[in-house]
Hints:
Layout: E1 4-11, E2 16-21, H1 24-32, E3 46-56, H2 58-69, H3 73-81
Antiparallel strand pairs: 1-2, 1-3
Amino acid sequence: MSEWFVYLIRATDQSIYTGITTDVERRFNEHLNGRAGAKYFRGRRPEDVVFVEGGHDRSSASIREAQIKKLSRKHKLDLINA
């Protein structure tokens, strides 16, 4: 069974994208090159990965992603800076 990661990417407009994957570097490069879903990056460019949380299976990663997406920007920044 693969380890899943929850990740946050800061975009060029300083917004924060939340996603899950089994390979953060590959997924970031897919976002960067426009090869992967995420309509989010059609109007902005990914700048860098600012947060990674591992130790998840697919289910717990999805649950954690949903929790983070519900956070305010301030709380997401607190998570990044913690």
